[in-house]
Design goal:
single chain, Rossmann fold, alpha/beta, two-stranded antiparallel ribbon
Length: about 190
């Protein structure tokens, strides 16, 4: 998930090992279109489409969608993770719905296959805190074209991966195979 060398010869970094232990399963592969450091220009763009002034949110979501669409057509697309049939987003743990839908719905490669399959569950997820019941299938997730389909899980940003991996666990345990997690951005530590 991390895309970085691990320490002490371990197969997984600390975050990945922690999440796999919490969920009791192997993690789903993750690809991010770019890395960011908290406070940099990329981070401000990602935060701005959710938390910026209302008139600019759509503009920023469209900018992120164009960037993601360009990334997908330049080498990702259907070949990513061996292909997928349905795209779903990770619901927000603090807001209603899934803010990442504002991006996915603007990307043709994702929009036509976008389905709302998940809702927040009874257990909380947080930074480095995954939960098997952090997300549940929505009423729509139990029927429709998602049944037996290969699922691409989409999120705007990944820090430790706890929420996205919890969402992947919920889908997988309900019989929806998740081929991978695609994030627009991935948080990195600033270089020392």
């Amino acid at each position: 998930m991390c895309g970085e060398p691990t320490r002490f010869g371990r197969a997984d970094c600390f975050c990945c090992a922690t999440l796999a232990s919490q969920l009791g399963t192997r993690l789903v592969p993750v690809i991010a279109t770019f890395d960011y450091v908290v406070g940099d220009r990329q981070h401000r763009l990602l935060r701005g489409y959710k938390d910026g002034p209302q008139p600019l949110r759509g503009v920023r979501a469209s900018a992120l969608a164009r960037r993601l669409g360009d990334w997908l057509t330049s080498g990702g697309g259907d070949a990513l993770f061996g292909g997928w049939d349905v795209v779903t987003t990770v619901p927000s743990s603090r807001r209603g719905g899934a803010p990442a839908e504002a991006i996915a719905s603007r990307v043709p490669e994702l929009h036509d296959r976008l389905e709302r399959l998940l809702v927040r569950g009874p257990d909380s997820t947080d930074h480095l805190r995954a939960a098997r019941r952090g997300f549940l299938l929505s009423a729509h997730g139990s029927s429709g074209r998602a049944r037996g389909a290969r699922i691409l899980l989409f999120d705007d940003s990944i820090t430790t991966g706890a929420r996205a991996q919890s969402a992947a666990y919920a889908l997988g345990s309900a019989g929806h195979p998740v081929v991978g997690i695609l994030a627009v951005g991935r948080a990195r530590r600033a270089a020392p």
